[in-house]
Amino acid sequence: MEIPSKYDPKQVEQQWYDYWMEHRFFHSEPDEREPYTIVIPPPNVTGVLHMGHMLNNTIQDVLIRRARLMGKNACWVPGMDHASIATEAKVVAKLKADGIEKSDLSRSEFLKHAWSWTDEYGGIILEQLKKLGCSCDWERTKFTMDDDMYASVIKVFVDLFNKGLIYRGHRMVNWDPEALTTLSDEEVVYEEKQGLLYYLSYKIEDSDEMVTIATTRPETILGDTAICINPNDDRYRHLKGRKAIVPICNRAIPIIADEYVDVEFGTGCLKVTPAHDINDKALGERHDLETIDIFNPNATLNSFGLHYEGKDRFEVRKAIAKELKELGLLVKTETHLNKVGTSERTKAVIEPRLSDQWFLAMEDLVKPAIKAVMDTEEVRFFPKKFENTYRHWMSNIRDWNISRQLWWGQQIPAYYYGDGQNDFVVAENKEDALLMARKKADRPDLKAEDLRQDPDVLDTWFSSWLWPISVFGGILNPKGKEVSYYYPTNDLVTGPDIIFFWVARMIVSGYEYREERPFQNVYFTGLVRDKQRRKMSKQLGNSPDALALISEYGADGVRVGLLLSSAAGNDLMFDEDLCQQGKNFSNKIWNALRLIQGWETAEIDQPRAAALGLEWYASKFHRTLAEIEDHFSKYRISDALMAIYKLVWDDFCSWLLEIVKPAYQQPIDTATKDRVIGWFEETLKLLHPFMPFLTEEVWHRLGERNPNQALIVAKWPTVETADAALLQGFEFAEGVVSGIRNIRKEKQIPMKDAIALSVLNEENIGDAWDTVIRKLTNVSEIHYVDAPLEGALSFRVKSNEYFVPVSGTIDVGAEIEKIKTELDYARGFLRSVSKKLENERFVNNAPEQVIAKERQKQADAEAKIETLEKSLASLS
C-alpha cells in the first residue's frame, strides 16, 4: 500500500480507535489469565480534560497497554464521580439563569433537573479521553450514582452504623456559606492572607476600668459570651469573676480564667465566642458558657446582629470597625498574617459552625491501613516520600464528617419517627425502616408516611472510597466472580493532593470490606506547571486547551511531550516544545517506515556490514529492554520512555538503518530486509504503550495482518542476554565513524570522496567492525600502524588513535593547540573524578555501581591523557 510522504495523525487516530473498539480489544472478562487491573480516579461529572488529566491518564494507558502486550487480562475501569457540591452548584446556577430558585422546588423536582443536566453535560471528559487514546474498558463505565453503586454506599452506611462506627453528633464543623453545606477537614484549604488585628476596648461592669482585646474578626463580638484571661497573668488576675460589657450590644459577660490563653499574643486577653471558633467552643464547654450563633447559613448576620441583620459578614466587619471607632472603642489596628480556611470546591471562606451532623469514627478503622503501608508494605507508594505524609495524617486522624446539606448524592438512610434526639432508625430502605421504627418506638400503628428520611446526602468521597470494590459489585455481592477475579487491583495512578480524600480512605475500606489491600502500588504524579513554575489554572490563563494540543501535535506527540519530563511525584514544567518534540519523533518513525518499504529486494548475499549491524542491534535491543523493565518495576515511566526514544531515534534509525541501507538505486538482500522489519516490529511493541496510534499504523503497513495480529494484542518481547563484547565493539566503531565525519566536516571533504584510515591500535579491538566503518564513512582502506602517521589529521577513541591523510598542508601549530586544549580538559576532568574517589564519605556511602562508573571514568581519562601526550610529542 502506498505510504504518504508525511504522517498525519488526523487521518490515523480515529480510524484505529474505532478499530480497537470494534474488535473489543479494551474489554475484559474473567478467564484463566493473570488479571491486571486499574480503576480510573473518577473525574467529576462536571469535568473537562485538562493537562493534569492528560498526564494521569496517559500514564494509566501506558501501564494497561503494556500489561495487555504482556499477555495479562488487562482491565481498566473508567467512570465518573457525581461530585455533590460542584454539580449541585452548576445545576443551581442553570436554574437561576432560567429564573428558578432551588428553594422553590421540591427535592424530587430538583433531582430531575440534576439528572437532566448530568445527561446533557456530564461525561464529556470520558469522550475526550478517547481522543488521547485511553484504552479503558468502556463497557464497564461506572457512575457513582448508578443504582448498584448507590445501593453499595447505602449498604456500607447501614453496616458501619450497626457496628457503632457511624454516629450523629452536635459538633463544630466547617461550613461553606456559598454551597450551604458542611465540609470535612480535608476539603478545607488553608491560605495565608494579610488581614488586620483589631484592638477593642471592653468596659468592666460597675467600673471605669477598660480591658483591651485583640481579634481578627470584630464582627463576632456580637456572639461573645465571655472574656478569658490566664490565671497566672498578674495584669488581669483581679478581674477574675467580674463582668465585662460587650460593645454595641451592651451585654454583660463573665470574665473567666483558663491557661489556654497565650499571655504573649495580642493583649493576653481573649474574647470567647463558642458558636464561631472550635477552641472557643472547648472553652465554653469547660466553663459552661452560653452559645450565641450570630450567622445565617449564608454568612449574613441574623437577629443577634442587631442593626447589621441581613448584611454579609465581610461588609459588617468594615462597618462595625467604623462604628467602634466612632464610639472610641477601637484602640488601634495592626496588619496581621493569618491562615484562613477556604472551601476546596467553592473557594468561599469557611465558617466554623455548630451543627448536627453524621460522623464516621476513624481511629480503629485506620489501623490496618497504616500497617499495610508503613509496616508490611502490602501497599507501596512511588515515590516513597509520600509515606511520611500518609503516616502523619493517618496517625492524627479525626472522625470523618460524612453528611452534606445537599440534594444531589446518596441520601442518608436515617428515618425519623419522632422529635426526640434518638427517635430514628437506620435501614437500607423505607420498608425495613418502618418495621424497625414500629419495634423501636413500640408503635405498631406507625405508617410509612410518618417516617421522615434525613434530607442530607453523603460526602461524595463516601462513595468513591469504595470505588475499587463497588465497580466490581463487591459490596452487594462480596463473593461474586468479578470482584474475586479483579480485586485487589494492581496499580493506582493519582495525584498526591488527594492522598487523604481518596487514597487513604480506599485502603481503609479495602481492609474493612475485603480484608485486603485495594491495590498494590500507588504512583503519584506531580502537578503540571508552566515554564514559570506556576500551577496551571483557568484564572491564570496558562493552561493550554488539551484537545487543541492533540489537534496540533497528534495524541502520540502530546503523550510523548508530557511523559518525557514527568518523573514520579515531581512537578512537570510543561512546555509546548515538548509536544513538538513528540511530533518530530512521530515523523522520524514514519520516515524510517518509508525508507524500509522503499527498498527493493533481491536474492543476493547478505553484506557482512548488514549482518554485523543486525547482530549488534539485537544485543542493543535486549540491553535496552532490560533497562526498560527495570524502569517500569520502579515506576520510572519517563525514564522508560527516554530509553525507548534513544533506542528508536539513535540506534534503530540513525545507526542500524544506515548500516544496512543498500547503495543508491541498488536492491537489498531479502534476509536483511526481513530481519530489519522484524526488529522494527519488536521495537514498535516497546513503543506502543506510549504512542499507540502511530505504532499501530506502522505495524499494519509493515505487513498484512488479521485482527488477532493487531499490535495492541501482540506479544511483549522477552529479555535475552546481550553480547557485551559486541556492544563494546560497536561503541568503538561509533566513535571512529563520528571522528571521521568530524574531519570530513572540518576539511569539507565530500562523502563521495573516498579516504584512507590508519589506526594506532593500543586496545587491539581487531578489524571486526572495519566493514561497518567503511560503509558509513566511505573509507577505501584501513591500515593498522605501529607509530603515529605524519602529515595526517588524527582523533582518538578511548586509547586508540586514528589518522586520516588529507591533501594540502596541515597547520601543525593549530593541531598542537587543539591537542593542548583537549589535554587540559582531560586533566581537569581526571582531577575532579579522582577527588571524588579520594573522598571516603562518597566511597563508603555511594552505591557500588556508581563507584564502578566513576572508576571507569578515571581509567578512560588516564588512557586518553596518555594518547594525547603521545600525539603532542609526535608533533612537537
Description:
With 876 residues, the protein is α/β, with parallel strands linked by helices. It is built from 26 helices and 31 strands. Among the domains are: 171 residues, Valyl/Leucyl/Isoleucyl-tRNA synthetase, editing domain (Isoleucyl-tRNA Synthetase, domain 2), CATH 3.90.740; 40 residues, no CATH class; 177 residues, Isoleucyl-tRNA Synthetase, Domain 1; 150 residues, no CATH class. 43% of the residues lie in helices and 18% in strands. Strand 22, helix 15 and strand 23 form a beta-alpha-beta unit. Helix 9 runs antiparallel to helix 10 and helix 20 runs antiparallel to helix 21. It is elongated and about 115 Å long.
What low-confidence regions span 5 or more consecutive residues with pLDDT below 50?
Answer: none
Number of helices: 26
Global outline: elongated
Just name the CATH architecture of the domain at 546-722: Orthogonal Bundle
Instruction: Describe the main β-sheet briefly.
Output: 7 strands, mixed
Helix content: 40-55%
CATH class of the domain at 546-722: Mainly Alpha
CATH superfamily assignment of the domain at 546-722?
Isoleucyl-tRNA Synthetase, Domain 1
Task: Give a brief rundown of this model.
The protein is α/β, with parallel strands linked by helices. It is built from 26 helices and 31 strands. The strands form ten sheets. Strands 7, 8, 9, 10, 11, 12 and 13 form a seven-stranded mixed beta sheet that branches. Strands 6-5-14-16 form a four-stranded antiparallel beta sheet. It has a four-stranded mixed beta sheet with strand order 29-28-31-30, with helices on both faces.
